[in-house]
Amino acid sequence: MKTSVSAIQNDSNVCADIIGFDFSSYDDADIAAVRSYWLQYGVIRFRATDITDQQQVDFSRHFGDFVIHPKQLQEGGHPIHREILVISNVMKDGKPSGALGNSEATWHTDTWFYERPPAGAILRAIEVPAAGGDTYFLSTYQAFETLPEELRSAVEGRQIFFQNVYDKTGKLRLGKGEPTSADFREWSGVVHPLVRSHGETGRKALYLGGTSEGAWIVGLPLDESNDLISRLWEHTTNTPEVFVQKWSVGDIVMWDNRCTMHRRDSFDPNTIRIMHRTTTSGERPI
Fold it and tell me: Where is the TauD/TfdA-like domain (predicted)?
């Protein structure tokens, strides 16, 4: 089978624009081409699409089983498609009509506190402000591959613990109770390798999750762990190789959660930002 799908690399090492993909008519070869570019770059973008929620769900299904984000069980649920997380700062009857609102986000991988974090996310712009709300992406392959020798030796064979009781805003996660210990290392959480091997490409990527708070490099004294984590975060995020997505209505960005990190800018709360996101399942980090 032949395909007309191609990719043009953007101004970083982490994103490419997909050209020639038709969301209303595609075949297995087209999907295979998209997957290949996704694995190659980590982030791919479709510009100015005009598709329905159903088409987004149908497309996403080709990349794995759906993962229900915690916010989909709360304010971020879609009225028809349970697969879609609604990200919105619009208020209705005094309550949020979607999740995540308009607060500034820091660098993170998605739901790093899961045993099996998602492989990918597909985010579509429904309504966007004139300024702000941009999304930034970086490669955690690059973060690992450019580690100074001292840091590379320090992370070799190490595991990192992430507590999963509180979210980054300090709120209890759904289904979690207040911890009885003051030491977060004794709380409910998950342990992942600090350097993970991608389940499809085999390449190694640094895995820092979503915050240095409530994270501990297993086996190290806490002060040594905190120092090493701080240095790894500085190394990872202090890079010029960042792709900035300045959203237009209809843009779709699909990222590989196993080898990238992202963050979002804040924006004027008097403007509106509505996004629809689908999330696909991944393997347990190894």
Answer: 15-279
The answer to whether residue 99 scores a pLDDT higher than 60 is: no
% pLDDT > 70, the chain:
91
Per residue in 215-237, pLDDT (tens digit) is 999 999 999 999 999 999 999 99
Q: What domain range is 116 assigned to?
A: 7-286
Task: Band the pLDDT of 200: cuts 50, 70, 90.
Answer: very high
3-state SS assignment for residue 36:
helix
Q: DSSP string of 174-215? A: TTPPPPS-S-GGGSSEEEEESEEE-TTT--EEE--TT-STTE
**Distance of alpha carbon 146 from alpha carbon 141, whole angstroms:** 9
pTM over 0.85: yes
CB–CB of 129/270 below 8 Å?
Answer: no
Rg, C-alpha atoms of the chain: 19
What domain count does the chain have?
Answer: 1
Contact yes or no for 269/88 (Cβ under 8 A): no
